[in-house]
Amino acid sequence: MLARTTGRAAAVLLVAEGLGILALLVWQIGALFAGDTAVLTTAIALAVLTAIGAAAVLAFGVATWRERSWGRSGGVVTQLLILAVALGAITGAFAAPGIALALAAPAVVTLVLLAMTVRASAPPREDRAGGDA
């Protein structure tokens, strides 16, 4: 029961992250049409990669909801990548601690929920007190 509850909560957060990436894609497309990009081909490539990333994170969310292990694995990798971006946002010449916190907080919560789901859904281990290996 715990695996299902934590898995569903993690899935909802993954879908929310995927929708956030879709919002970023809409913003990028708007910048493309407004002419706010320096190099058109680079902006298009970034938009395509953002669309692929959004589709992947949404797929991880749906797979986690359906209790598929690959969705949880992809979700864990996604959270680690988000934490790396948050670390980059808090360091450097243009550090933005608020943005870093806004990225890191849901990523940590989702990562913990995914870890709890993996732990709860693992098959029970047999205790080998007799010493046979």
UniProtKB/TrEMBL annotation:
Domain of life of the organism encoding this protein: Bacteria
Keyword Transmembrane helix (UniProt): yes
Keyword entries, A-Z: Kinase, Membrane, Transferase, Transmembrane, Transmembrane helix
Molecular function terms from GO: kinase activity
Transmembrane segments: 12-33, 39-63, 75-93, 99-118
Record-given protein name: Histidine kinase
The species this protein was found in: Microbacterium aurantiacum
